[in-house]
Design a protein that fits this description.
The protein has 174 residues and is mainly beta. It has no helices and eight strands. The model has no long low-confidence stretch (mean pLDDT 92).
Length: 174
């Protein structure tokens, strides 16, 4: 390896019939990211890499977030490749946003009434939450059509209030 990369021969002096300590020699060392051939194998910065992560603080190695790898080339660190960064949370039983909670804050609008009736009269959507990677089957908060009653509201969600009720008899003794 003498004369390759950083490696150099040293010198020894002869005293009293014995060679002394070799001084000034440079032997192969560990390769580092410095644009030099530290290990004297004829290649500069070969095999030098380090772990990296460019995501928000506190998300590294949390949930799905994982480190990447950064390689060295001619004394400079390259891009961080292969890392997994936080993503939008989805209902999949995985901590996608790397906040330490699985499927947190995931809700889905739902409505089990007849098509075209949500948002008409008293009818409105509900919202179901995700748990364990699946949305619940119940639709809390929804209001589906009811039988029309005389109350000034569109109970059957057809766009008209109190229709089809006809008349009723009233008076004493009834």
């Amino acid at each position: 390896t003498s004369g390759v990369g950083l490696c150099r021969a040293g010198t020894q002096g002869c005293a009293a019939g014995a060679w002394g300590v070799c001084t000034g020699q440079v032997t192969p060392g560990s390769e580092s990211c410095n644009n030099l051939d530290d290990d004297c194998n004829g290649a500069i910065d070969n095999g030098v890499a380090r772990g990296c992560y460019t995501g928000p603080a506190g998300t590294q190695m949390v949930g799905r977030c994982r480190d990447g790898l950064q390689a060295c080339s001619t004394g400079a660190w390259g891009a961080c490749t292969g890392q997994t960064l936080p993503a939008v949370e989805t209902c999949n039983n995985i901590d996608d946003d790397c906040d330490g909670m699985v499927d947190d804050g995931i809700a889905q609008t739902c409505y089990t009434g007849p098509a075209g009736t949500s948002g008409v009269g008293i009818c409105r959507n509900g919202s179901r939450t995700c748990s364990g990677g699946v949305f619940g089957v119940v639709c809390p908060g929804e209001q589906v059509p009811l039988v029309e009653v005389c109350n000034g509201l569109d109970d059957d969600c057809d766009g008209t209030a109190d229709e089809g009720l006809g008349t009723t008899t009233c008076g004493a003794g009834l």
